[in-house]
Design a protein that fits this description.
There is one protein chain. By secondary structure, the chain is of the alpha+beta class. 46% of the residues lie in helices and 19% in strands. It has a 5-stranded mixed β-sheet with strand order 1-2-3-5-4, sandwiched between helices. A two-stranded antiparallel sheet has the order 6-7. Helix 1 packs across helix 2 and helix 1 crosses helix 3. The longest helix is centred in the first third of the chain and has 36 residues.
Length: 202
């Protein structure tokens, strides 16, 4: 009930910019007020779901139109994307195409972005090489958040990420799980193998 019922609705408040509603729910001692806030949380979660669906469909359309699925990384920027939702969509894009993705929503003169990576590729380290056109960024190897000036084209970031996506010259001793597979039967047979044996498709 908490994981799939309460938590997503509390999380949705923050993503939709109404985090104070969740705080009020925890602080109130009035049952009627708590019920009213809870109903608002449901509405925010529905709004989050609709926004997420719309952005995801828009992103997939852009990927297919520009043939980005053939590129080593996916970097897209567009106005009217919700900066609180693009992280969720980026996760879905990375899982779908199994390659690093960064989505940027353009707001005024700036762009706010969120990215996700795949096992074996340090997205944080890769973006540290793009500091000439990224205002600021943070995160870790698998997920990042960035701020970028609107006039800085995504192609620069994509170019630097592409150079970092090349197959390593020296074999690694670490082991990584291969790409996510849709088939449950194939997923059961999935084995861990050395990174140097993985066929890099991103």
């Amino acid at each position: 009930a908490i994981s799939f019922g309460v938590a997503p609705r509390i999380n949705a408040c923050g993503r939709m910019g109404a985090q104070e509603e969740a705080l009020k729910l925890f602080l109130t001692e009035d049952k009627q007020e708590a019920l009213k806030i809870a109903k608002n949380l449901v509405k925010f979660n529905q709004e989050r779901q609709n926004t997420e669906k719309q952005i995801f469909e828009d992103v997939i359309q852009e990927i297919e139109k520009n043939n980005d699925k053939e590129k080593k990384c996916i970097v897209l920027a567009k106005e009217n994307w919700h900066h609180g939702i693009i992280g969720i969509v980026s996760s879905k894009v990375t899982e779908m195409y199994y390659k690093p993705s960064i989505l940027i929503c353009l707001e005024g003169d700036m762009g706010k972005g969120s990215g996700r990576s795949v096992p074996g590729f340090d997205l944080y380290n890769a973006l540290s090489k793009c500091n000439n056109y990224i205002e600021k960024f943070g995160g870790h190897s698998m997920a990042i958040g960035i701020s970028i000036k609107k006039e800085n084209p995504c192609s620069f970031i994509r170019k630097d990420l592409k150079s970092c996506c090349q197959k390593p010259k020296k074999p690694f001793r670490k082991f990584w799980q291969m790409k996510f597979l849709e088939s449950g039967k194939r997923q059961q047979k999935l084995l861990l193998m050395p990174l140097e044996r993985i066929l890099f498709t991103f």
